[in-house]
Amino acid sequence: EPEVTQTPSHQVTQMGQEVILRCVPISNHLYFYWYRQILGQKVEFLVSFYNNEISEKSEIFDDQFSVERPDGSNFTLKIRSTKLEDSAMYFCASSAMRGSGRTSYNEQFFGPGTRLTVL
Amino acid sequence: DQQVKQNSPSLSVQEGRISILNCDYTNSMFDYFLWYKKYPAEGPTFLISISSIKDKNEDGRFTVFLNKSAKHLSLHIVPSQPGDSAVYFCAARDSGGGADGLTFGKGTHLIIQP
User: Fold this and answer.
1) Cβ-Cβ contacts under 8 Å for A54 (sequence gap 6 or more)
2) How confident is the model at residue A102 (pLDDT cuts 50, 70, 90)?
3) Which neighbouring-strand residues pair with A20?
4) Chain A contact present for B103, CB below 8 A
5) Which helix (H) or strand (E) holds A75?
6) What is d(CA A42, CA B104) in angstroms, rounded to the nearest whole number?
7) Residue in A92, A86, A94, A89 with CA at minimum distance from that of residue A61
8) What is the pLDDT of residue A16?
9) Contact at 8 Å (CB) between A91 and A3?
């Protein structure tokens, strides 16, 4: 069964450094998302991406964050200058087109996550 | 501002019995609801969903009920199995936007007792 993959599984970085988290969404999906979960808190939406542009972003997704789809398979989240409070699990998700059958665009499928630790 | 609320942080159920997980929402624009299951160190796994035009959706051992007037939904698992022990998240979205993000509850940790 197709699945979303994410690399690395764990990233440790120093405060102020740039990090890039990578995701390979399910191949026939067209909508892509990033979420984060700070330890002990709920999963929070960061950004959605469709047709090579940001579709929606939350208040968390400030100028320090950016997303890119550099080729036909990868979807990346960049944090330009990491802060201690950026430490969290970051989840990538993808969903399909409306009318694609059982898997509708409403149902988002998540990757295993990248644990980001900022020291 | 908790738009999706799961008021029970944990729930313990005997194996073979029914597990009922509850979720309330406040945003009347939500029109699609999903349940996810999450094991430690893994991403959320999609379980079952329901559109606001329905009041019930069933998939094997999992049934989701939606009461729009009460802004309440529940997930029933029957019979409960040891592998069902996990954190269950209720999520909702306003599907009018096309690529809107999901709003999650804080989760309920379901523990199935042998």
Assistant:
1) A47, A48, A67
2) very low
3) A78
4) yes
5) strand A75-79
6) 7
7) A86
8) 97
9) no
Contact B43 A46 (CB under 8 A): no
Q: What share of chain B is helix, strand, coil (3-state, %, to 5)?
A: 5, 55, 40
The rounded distance, in Å, linking the Cα atoms of A111 and A95 is 12
Place of tokens 């999963």: A43
Mean pLDDT, chain A, whole residue set: 90
Coil, strand or helix: which one is B109? strand
Tokens at A67, concatenated: 């997303």
Question: B71 is written with which tokens?
Answer: 């802004």
Gyration radius of chain B's alpha carbons: 14
Q: What pLDDT, in 10s, does the model give residues B94-106?
A: 866 555 789 999 9
User: Position B38: which residue type?
Assistant: K
Whether the CB-CB separation of B30 and B14 falls below 8 Å is answered with no
pLDDT in tens, B12-37: 999 999 999 999 999 998 989 999 99
Q: B-chain residues within 8 Å CB-CB of A112?
A: 41-43
- Residue B105: phi and psi, rounded to 5, are -85, 180
Length of chain B equals 114
Interface of B with A in 2-31 (CB under 8 A): none
Average pLDDT over residues A17-46: 93
